Protein backbone atom coordinates (compact mmCIF):
# COMPACT_ATOMS: atom_id res chain seq x y z
CA UNK A 1 0.00 0.00 0.00
CA UNK A 2 1.23 3.47 -0.84
CA UNK A 3 -0.16 6.85 0.15
CA UNK A 4 0.63 10.06 -1.70
CA UNK A 5 0.73 12.90 0.79
CA UNK A 6 1.51 16.52 1.32
CA UNK A 7 2.60 16.67 4.99
CA UNK A 8 1.07 20.16 5.32
CA UNK A 9 -2.40 18.78 4.47
CA UNK A 10 -4.70 17.89 7.39
CA UNK A 11 -6.59 15.29 5.29
CA UNK A 12 -3.26 13.59 4.53
CA UNK A 13 -2.24 13.54 8.18
CA UNK A 14 -5.64 12.13 9.11
CA UNK A 15 -5.38 9.37 6.48
CA UNK A 16 -1.88 8.42 7.68
CA UNK A 17 -3.18 8.27 11.26
CA UNK A 18 -6.00 5.98 10.14
CA UNK A 19 -3.52 3.67 8.42
CA UNK A 20 -1.36 3.65 11.56
CA UNK A 21 -4.37 2.85 13.75
CA UNK A 22 -5.30 -0.01 11.43
CA UNK A 23 -1.79 -1.42 11.74
CA UNK A 24 -1.28 -1.83 8.01
CA UNK A 25 2.06 -1.59 6.26
CA UNK A 26 2.35 1.26 3.81
CA UNK A 27 4.83 3.51 2.08
CA UNK A 28 4.53 7.29 2.21
CA UNK A 29 5.24 9.17 -0.98
CA UNK A 30 5.64 12.90 -0.61
CA UNK A 31 4.46 13.53 -4.11
CA UNK A 32 5.46 17.21 -4.11
CA UNK A 33 9.08 16.16 -3.51
CA UNK A 34 8.86 12.97 -5.61
CA UNK A 35 6.29 13.70 -8.34
CA UNK A 36 4.83 10.79 -10.25
CA UNK A 37 5.78 10.22 -13.84
CA UNK A 38 3.09 10.54 -16.47
CA UNK A 39 2.94 6.73 -16.64
CA UNK A 40 2.58 6.42 -12.86
CA UNK A 41 -0.15 9.04 -12.72
CA UNK A 42 -1.94 7.42 -15.65
CA UNK A 43 -1.84 4.04 -13.89
CA UNK A 44 -3.19 5.53 -10.65
CA UNK A 45 -5.97 7.28 -12.55
CA UNK A 46 -6.88 3.97 -14.20
CA UNK A 47 -6.95 2.28 -10.79
CA UNK A 48 -9.13 5.09 -9.45
CA UNK A 49 -11.43 4.87 -12.47
CA UNK A 50 -11.09 8.64 -12.85
CA UNK A 51 -9.80 11.15 -15.35
CA UNK A 52 -7.11 13.72 -14.52
CA UNK A 53 -9.61 16.58 -14.38
CA UNK A 54 -11.54 14.60 -11.73
CA UNK A 55 -8.55 14.81 -9.35
CA UNK A 56 -7.17 18.20 -10.36
CA UNK A 57 -6.97 20.91 -7.74
CA UNK A 58 -8.31 23.70 -9.94
CA UNK A 59 -8.28 26.20 -7.07
CA UNK A 60 -4.48 26.22 -6.88
CA UNK A 61 -2.77 29.43 -8.11
CA UNK A 62 -0.83 27.46 -10.75
CA UNK A 63 -4.16 26.17 -12.11
CA UNK A 64 -5.27 29.76 -12.66
CA UNK A 65 -1.94 30.60 -14.30
CA UNK A 66 -2.41 27.68 -16.70
CA UNK A 67 -6.08 28.47 -17.32
CA UNK A 68 -6.86 24.89 -16.30
CA UNK A 69 -10.57 25.53 -15.79
CA UNK A 70 -10.91 26.33 -19.48
CA UNK A 71 -9.14 23.19 -20.75
CA UNK A 72 -11.26 20.62 -22.57
CA UNK A 73 -12.14 17.52 -20.58
CA UNK A 74 -11.95 14.90 -23.27
CA UNK A 75 -9.81 11.97 -24.39
CA UNK A 76 -7.73 14.17 -26.70
CA UNK A 77 -6.80 16.44 -23.75
CA UNK A 78 -6.06 13.69 -21.19
CA UNK A 79 -2.29 13.66 -21.82
CA UNK A 80 -2.15 17.47 -21.56
CA UNK A 81 -3.83 17.33 -18.14
CA UNK A 82 -1.51 14.57 -16.95
CA UNK A 83 1.58 16.45 -18.19
CA UNK A 84 0.47 19.58 -16.30
CA UNK A 85 -0.08 17.58 -13.11
CA UNK A 86 3.32 15.92 -13.40
CA UNK A 87 5.01 19.28 -13.96
CA UNK A 88 2.99 20.93 -11.18
CA UNK A 89 2.20 18.18 -8.63
CA UNK A 90 0.32 20.66 -6.42
CA UNK A 91 -2.48 20.15 -8.94
CA UNK A 92 -2.97 16.53 -7.81
CA UNK A 93 -5.73 15.95 -5.28
CA UNK A 94 -4.55 14.36 -2.05
CA UNK A 95 -4.20 11.99 -0.34
CA UNK A 96 -4.32 9.11 -2.78
CA UNK A 97 -3.97 5.56 -1.50
CA UNK A 98 -3.08 2.69 -3.81
CA UNK A 99 -3.83 -0.61 -2.15
CA UNK A 100 -2.02 -3.90 -2.69
CA UNK A 101 -5.17 -5.48 -4.14
CA UNK A 102 -5.13 -3.06 -7.09
CA UNK A 103 -7.74 -0.66 -5.79
CA UNK A 104 -7.11 3.01 -5.21
CA UNK A 105 -8.98 5.88 -3.61
CA UNK A 106 -8.75 9.59 -3.10
CA UNK A 107 -8.75 9.30 0.68
CA UNK A 108 -10.24 12.62 1.77
CA UNK A 109 -12.73 10.98 4.14
CA UNK A 110 -12.35 8.34 6.86
CA UNK A 111 -14.77 6.14 4.89
CA UNK A 112 -12.54 6.30 1.81
CA UNK A 113 -9.52 5.25 3.86
CA UNK A 114 -11.50 2.38 5.42
CA UNK A 115 -12.56 1.18 1.97
CA UNK A 116 -8.99 0.15 1.07
CA UNK A 117 -8.03 -1.46 4.37
CA UNK A 118 -7.70 -5.25 4.42
CA UNK A 119 -10.78 -6.92 5.84
From TrEMBL:
Protein keywords: Oxidoreductase
Gene3D superfamilies to which the protein is assigned, alphabetical: Glutaredoxin (3.40.30.10)
The keyword Oxidoreductase appears for this protein: yes
Molecular function as annotated in GO: arsenate reductase (glutaredoxin) activity
Family to which the UniProt record says this protein belongs: Belongs to the ArsC family.
UniProt xrefs under PANTHER family: ARSENATE REDUCTASE
Protein name as catalogued: Arsenate reductase family protein
Native source species: Saccharopolyspora hirsuta
